[in-house]
């Protein structure tokens, strides 16, 4: 996304040069160079990521109640190809590397919860987002069971294809389950937008980040910082889209927080 923006600026620069708009060409040239430097040296991604994550750096204490729900949001799936036998099956579909922090955090919270002798369920939310023939919920549940989580304490929500639907469909499960307390687990850069969407559907959950992503500020340009900028921009675009849809009346009517 950031590289696309820079490429667009370069195209504009070439057009301005072709039509001899020298003053405008200089402005676009300096803007392109400055933007490239601010991204590659980590200044822009650091600002964007800090604004997303800083409120969640310290994990909030959880007061476990009689009936608790830990909401684990899916982070995609990865197809692991069998290069020897050239076979693809359900067993070769795994969580991607950046999902394991979420899975670990949900399992840790579950063990803390049952340690207080309270009822606790993990709700795994995520459908077949990549058309691989299985769902994030099913694959993550399997991994949770492998690390010792009781399968009967795992509820799967297998229809959602994005964060908005995660919130929408999980809120219906929470309504039916009469949960006293809910905890929302996602990645550090994703938790802020997730909380906004869940509150839209009346879910007042305690947000817990599973990880924290930091930009590397350096005098030397780093390609890594372009990737971080794209991750952060994806989240901010989600906020802007939410606000625009609200203004247009395209979003489902907001539910009072705490109703779910």
Description:
Pfam families: DUF218. The chain has two domains: 2-40, no CATH class; 58-215, Rossmann fold, CATH 3.40.50.620. Helices cover 48% and strands 12% of the residues. It is built from eight helices and seven strands; from the N terminus they run αααβββαβαβαβαβα. It has helices at residues 2-18, 22-40, 43-53, 100-114, 136-146, 163-177, 191-200, 223-248, and strands spanning 67-73, 78-79, 93-94, 119-125, 154-157, 181-186, 206-209. The strands form two sheets. The protein has a five-stranded parallel sheet, sandwiched between helices. Helix 1 packs antiparallel against helix 2 and helix 6 packs across helix 7. The longest helix is centred in the C-terminal third of the chain and has 26 residues, at 223-248. The radius of gyration is 21 Å and the shape is elongated.
What is the structure about, briefly put?
This protein is an alpha/beta fold and 260 residues long. Helix content is 48%, strand content 12%.
Portion of residues in beta strands equals: 5-15%
Identify the strand order in the major beta sheet.
5-4-1-6-7
In percent, how helical is the residue content? 40-55%
Low-pLDDT residue spans: none
Question: CATH top level of the largest domain?
Answer: Alpha Beta
Largest sheet: 5 strands, parallel
Total E-strand runs:
7
Mean pLDDT: 92
Could you say which structural class the secondary elements and strand pairing correspond to?
Answer: alpha/beta
* Number of H/I helices: 8
């Amino acid at each position: 996304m950031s590289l696309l923006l820079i490429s667009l600026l370069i195209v504009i620069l070439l057009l301005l040069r072709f039509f001899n708009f020298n003053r405008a060409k200089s402005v676009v040239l300096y803007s392109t160079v400055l933007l490239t430097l601010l991204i590659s040296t980590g200044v822009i991604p650091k600002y964007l990521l800090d604004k997303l994550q800083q409120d969640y750096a310290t994990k909030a204490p959880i007061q476990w109640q009689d009936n608790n729900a830990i909401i684990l949001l899916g982070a995609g799936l990865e197809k692991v190809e069998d290069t020897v036998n050239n076979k693809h099956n359900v067993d070769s579909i795994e969580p991607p590397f950046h999902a394991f922090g979420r899975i670990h955090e949900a399992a840790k919270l579950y063990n803390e919860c049952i340690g207080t002798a309270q009822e606790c369920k993990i709700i795994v939310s995520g459908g077949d987002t990549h058309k691989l023939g299985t769902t994030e919920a099913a694959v993550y549940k399997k991994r949770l069971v492998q690390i010792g989580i009781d399968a009967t304490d795992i509820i799967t929500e297998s229809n959602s294809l994005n964060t908005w639907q995660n919130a929408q469909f999980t809120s219906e499960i929470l309504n039916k389950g009469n949960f006293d307390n809910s905890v929302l687990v996602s990645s550090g850069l994703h938790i802020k937008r997730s909380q906004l969407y869940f509150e839209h559907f009346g879910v007042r959950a305690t947000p817990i980040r599973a990880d924290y992503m930091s930009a590397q500020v350096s005098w030397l340009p780093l390609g890594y910082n372009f990737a971080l900028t794209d991750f952060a921009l994806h989240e901010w675009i989600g906020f802007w889209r939410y606000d625009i849809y609200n203004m247009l009346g395209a979003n489902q009517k907001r539910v009072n927080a705490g109703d779910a």
